[in-house]
Amino acid sequence: MERTKKPDNKFPIILGVAAVAVIGIVIAIVVIINANRSKLLGKWIYEYGSWGYDFQTDTRGEYSVGEYSQGFTYKDNGNSLTIKYDGSDAEVTLDYRIEDNGKKLVVADSIGRDTIYNRQ
What we know:
The protein is α+β, with helices and mostly antiparallel strands. The protein has one helix spanning 11-36; strands spanning 42-46, 51-55, 60-65, 68-76, 80-85, 92-99, 104-108, 114-119.
């Protein structure tokens, strides 16, 4: 009896390689998108009070104290933050850092004192 050779079916291998490539591309896109997002996004409340900042998008936010709120635009420079409040031409730039695995925002004021905000 002569053995017949099965035809090679490479379709499953090609399909598997294509699936791995698509997954790799999706992961790369997600990483790139998240790398460009501000780590400030979200609401931050002063640790000893009820006022704070809500960074709503990569460029817009709102400062609130009790019932009062003021919108602003901002630019996250990586370790400093430039804020321009709505209705004002003045800009303020403050150094900041994120601590405690993203739970604390520490902002240095103009004389170097730290103000701590907790992520909500």
